[in-house]
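INFO batch 0412 | record 1 of 1 | parsing
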Amino acid sequence: MLHYIFTTIGLRRDVVDPNWDDYIFDDEDPPRPDKFKSLTKGEPNYPPLTFKTEPRPWKDDEKKLSRSAALNSTPNAGILGTAWKVFPMKWRFRFSFGSDPTGRCIMCQKIDTSSSYGFGHHRYPILKESATLGCPLCEFFVANIRKVDTFCSADLTIDPETCNLWYKYAGYPATPFELFTERGNHEDAINHIFLRNIWPDPFEVGCLNVARSWLASCTIEHKRCKQSKNISVPTRLLDISATCPILCTKRKKAAYAALSYCWGQDRAVKTTKANFQCHEKGIKYGDLPKTFQDAISVTRALGIDFLWVDSLCIIQDDEDDWATECVRMGEYYENAYLTISALSASGSSEGFLHSRPKTQVLRLSETSNVYIRPREEFGRRKIFETAALSQRGWTLQERLLSTRILHFSSHEMFWECKTCSAREGSATEHIDPVDSRSLSNYEGDDFKRVLQHMDRDPHSPSNGAFAVWYRLVRQYTRRSLSRSSDRLPAISALASVFSTITGYNYMAGLWAEDSQSLLWLKDRRQSGGRTYPSYPREADTYRAPSWSWAAVDGAVIFAPYEDERTFSTNDASIIRQRVEPHGSNKFGAILRGSITLRALSKNVRCESKESTIGLIPEKWKIEAEYYTIGFPAARYRLRIFDTVGKHFAMGLCDDGDLELILDECLAVWIGEYIYDGRLPTKSVYFLLLVPDEDEADKWRRVGLGVTKDDPSFQGFFTTVFDCYEWKEFVLV
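INFO prediction complete | emitting tokens
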């Protein structure tokens, strides 16, 4: 801190802030600036003192504040720093000193981006005055933090792990900022700053160079992303090397890009039987929707001559062609040299090469290459979760199966491949480890790579094959489809890849080797104010058997997969399965399906009861003992009684339109689990079946039930399904 010596008689000096000096006078008349003469002590080369403000009278509240501070403050009180102690106070002058060429005040000059320790900054009134007097960084802070009513100085801390700068006043939420530097800046002094600038326009040369560097690095260095030179190409591609794209039916072995996008309500331009030959001659660039034009621009800029777009490369009104191409769609995305993702565009007419939202950016100092910007309220998770493309069912497998994918959001670019993920606003890449729990939401850096990192134990509740599939289905069913009949086709490519990896037998969305996959239930909860979708259902259209989650609309979850399975000898097994596909794709739409279960069962009676939204635990009395059960929200909860009227379990209806009372119902034991929480709980899950109306000796699923018991309640589980024989049940 510099000290100044003043020769003016009557001047009394008091430091209110380490940066500002308040010079207080007892004179009745305000002193003139020309009366001041300053000398520096210990810093002969320091800039001279400069007069900044016109004199003004003290306000009454300032006098009161000064007197209170003078009477109550101590050297360590920290209330106002050093208090005003001179009375009466008629005039005040404020001076700034020691600013750098850009006008930054002393406090802002002390900000050290390499420091892991916090340091102080201005009180809010002084922060505002410093901003008024020309300190650009103080002006930046004032514009981005909320007004506070406190006399404390601010605490400013830097988190090197996130490159976040936190500006906080005691008793108020901290305001986060981000520190970043420009790409290509490799100075040792700023190696700890890993965030990077985001270009205002995604089609700027610098932004495209980032995409080129990701693509080149992946192609050359990533062994996991290597593609065979003999991979097959799509039946048709758009040749975009000419001014007008040409629908090319010659199957050249050439690198191509694929487009992942939302058709939207406006519907994309499409190839039909009527215009097929015209498209082979050329498609006018101006006739293409904006998303297609942007995809062509990016593909050309990256040096790729061919592009695959489903609406143009599949004959949309030819059922045979659509069925044939649908089978290979996952292969098309996996074999593409690059997939271009129009992440934020809700329709084909919107495009994705738009200017980014303007963000206030400031350089920390004239000599620094570090910049500061407000931290956005949304991060990667929010961008992907709210993106239009993340709401569509078909696009899940497009994202997961693509070898490389370049996402264009409205805020920045994102990169994902089979090896790593990256973002435009950061110089770091996320590689491993991979956790399939990222499938439960949209934000995981490892979201795309879960299929390459499954545990050897297929029943592992973390990354086992079945848990991965459950999370895939949960993620998929949160999304919407234009046609309910696409419920199985839109995930068929993922099912095919999963089958290839595991060798398991697929059956209408489930796996024959895992009877526990029958324990799905509808999820009617809301997430972030968003209700999970239902689909427009075509009249009289068969979609899936009753035992498959594909038979119901909307989101589903798998009840117990994160609990510890006991593998009881009483667990059911699937001994036969028969699924007849609609066409040649055994992973796509089906005509009919059935499974044969070998399981314990008992006759029960169910009564349904309306519930409210939310996870509602309830205690149900069984004889003299209690056990607690909780279920995700459903329109109906079922009270389940045995044949003598004892209430022993509760459950959920698959269909909210079912009758309130089910007199003829069969409870079929599926599996036993232990939830190892604060109070370990053992559970038996079972299906609720009713006789099929159309086929004799066959059963149809109508719901799911569970009975839970504290292990201290001896004997309960040995009696629930006791004295019942093993039987075989055919479910349709």
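INFO post-check: Residues 593-731 form one domain.
INFO record closed
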